[in-house]
Amino acid sequence: MNQGVISSLLLLPIYSKLVSTQRATSTLTPPKPPDSEFIGFPSVTVRNLVKMPEKHIPPKIESFEDLEVHLRGSLNPNKTLALLLDYDGTLAPIADHPDKTIMSIAIETIVNKLAKNPNIFLAIISGRALDDIKNKIGINGITYAGNHGLEIESADNSRHDYVLSEEILENYNRLVKDLQENAVKNNAWVEDKRISLSFHYRAVPVNMKEAIKQEAKRIIEKHGYTANAAHEALEAKPPVVWNKGEASVFLLKQQFGEDWPKKVNVVFVGDDTTDEDAMKKLQGVGKSFRISSDPEIKTFADFRLTSQDLVGDLLSWISNTYENEE
């Protein structure tokens, strides 16, 4: 890892870089630091000593009837629901190019219905850039988190972005240039999201994929970024302790206060390795669902949805549970 990046991270308080800004003002106001058990380091709280999050092979759900069996009574409709959803592979099927992804009419309809329910706090948490995911969903008055939570826009249009150091940003620019010059070939390409990127190799000939993927991974890590496996892609994330899990907890605390676990039901749905950060944070205090066809997959999620098609069933079940509270 670049020594300059390491030095800047050691000197930089993790949460000093998360700032809240209103669109109408340039004032920067750091939020209250989270409790130790949510910072991402081991803590000595009684709860953590009793039970640390663990990966396991979860119960599978492969029909609406399974939802009824496993979830009956798990959500109190008299209690507000915080519904946190990924987009690619969750609300929309994976496509051969990010620009081609689209929600089905059924899912778009149910998401809009849930967004209007006053007893549901809806947030979309995606690896896409913030403006990109807002355009894909197209619903006003809900919360969006882009770039794996590095960019956040609340329902009132206030921004809460994790501001990266100049050194990390300069390193990011070098990373993009290095990938473009040495790994972008044979139909591989870089999705530049300004502070993180996705290196796509879906269209690379099969016999070349592994070599190109490994070269891209080497370059990403050489510049101090983390390379996470995605669907026929590598997600390059900056070397900071901030991810979908940290962003989820931040949103819940911001919306409901420090004692949010006592106030709200929480449901998280995702399909990728980057979603595991949120599933880990919410284990034991919410219900999370990992979409995967792999019966042996180990996850922090409480349940496994066997296909993306079941997301519509899950959202319908949630809507039915809360329909009397609209």
From TrEMBL:
InterPro entries: HAD-like_sf (IPR036412), HAD-SF_hydro_IIB (IPR006379), HAD_sf (IPR023214), OTSB-like (IPR044651), Trehalose_PPase (IPR003337). Keywords: Hydrolase, Signal. It comes from the Eukaryota. Its cofactor is a divalent metal cation. Transmembrane segments: none annotated. GO terms for molecular function: trehalose-phosphatase activity. Gene3D superfamilies: HAD superfamily/HAD-like, Trehalose-6-phosphate phosphatase related protein, domain 2. It is an enzyme of class 3 (hydrolase). The keyword Transcription regulation does not apply. Belongs to the trehalose phosphatase family. Removes the phosphate from trehalose 6-phosphate to produce free trehalose. This is Trehalose 6-phosphate phosphatase. It comes from Glossina morsitans morsitans. The lineage of its organism: Eukaryota, Metazoa, Ecdysozoa, Arthropoda, Hexapoda.
